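Continuing the series of single-chain predictions for the mutant panel. This is the parent chain; the variants come on the following pages.
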Amino acid sequence: MTTTVDFWFDPTCPFAWMTSRWMLEVEKVRDVKTVFHVMSLSVLNEGRDLPEDYRAHMDAAWVPARASLLVEQRHGSEKLAEFYTALGTRFHPRDEERSLETIAAALAEVGADADILEIAQTDAIDDDLRRSHNEGMEPVGQDVGTPVVRINGMSLFGPVISPAPKGEEAGQLFDGVEKVTAYPGFFELKRSRTVGPIFD
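Parent structure:
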């Protein structure tokens, strides 16, 4: 029986991006279906006292998150997955400017409605964005970020990986993550990260 993995991401986060690429690799070697959902680091950090440079990053992260949610609302979850791949490839491996033009190019690539970008520059869907965000974040708490995965009804932050494993190695990592979600008393595993995002 196919295992559904619900996956919450902010499109600006490089670690969520790598975890998402791992999940797509897992789909090749396990009977797994990944369903993408939008969370927002901007929502998560509302009202928090942040360093000036990180606050600027959070201010800029609203539009990509809103655009992603609008793609899902207008075109469905499969198109959201396509858009995340198009936008994330530009933002992360290609290191393109996180500009309106970059978002527009990703929307055009997947055939999404062009007016999405205009709406994403307003707060018109922010209530919807907060709902999507909270659906992913409430089960894990507000002291973590993105990604969040939900397997077998259990939500966890992570896994944070760099680089993303391929092939059977990806499947074996998934097997381990799936096993810890089977125990309701499991809360945390962590070690300090020693590398930055490694895109391949």
